[in-house]
Amino acid sequence: MKKTEEIYCVIFNKVVREGKLIADNYTLGMLSAFGVPELITIKDNKITVTFDNKTKHTFHYNNDVEIFIREKEEKTEKTNQ
């Protein structure tokens, strides 16, 4: 992964129930059960998702996990003008 790229989504825990594929996912900026993911990283075959409330979820990166990478978005400061 390039320095200009970031992981913006991870899909995991895929199961088929009643013929339908069900999976969990974390996407940057989208509300989840644990808060809003702010950072997704991979190190030593483990994925860590850090949420806006500083909670972290760490799990193993394996064949069942999909990651989505994009160019980093530029952060802009909000002003009250």
Average the pLDDT over all residues and give the rounded result.
Answer: 91
Q: Please state the structural category.
A: mainly beta
The helix/strand order is: EEEEEE
Q: Please give the radius of gyration in angstroms.
A: 15 Å
- Strand arrangement, largest sheet? 2-1-6
- How many domains comprise the coordinates? 1
User: Which strand-content bin applies to the residues?
Assistant: over 45%
Global shape: globular
Largest sheet: 3 strands, antiparallel
Number of helices: 0
Could you tell me the number of beta strands?
Answer: 6
Report a brief summary of the structure.
With 81 residues, the protein is mainly β. The chain has no helices and six strands.
Describe the structure in your own words.
The protein is an all-beta fold and 81 residues long. It has one domain (5-71). Helices cover 0% and strands 56% of the residues. It has strands at 5-17, 20-27, 37-43, 46-51, 56-60, 66-71. The chain has a 3-stranded antiparallel β-sheet, with no helix packed on it. A hairpin with a 4-residue loop joins β4 and β5. The radius of gyration is 15 Å and the shape is globular.
Layout: helices, strands, pairs:
Layout: E1 5-17, E2 20-27, E3 37-43, E4 46-51, E5 56-60, E6 66-71
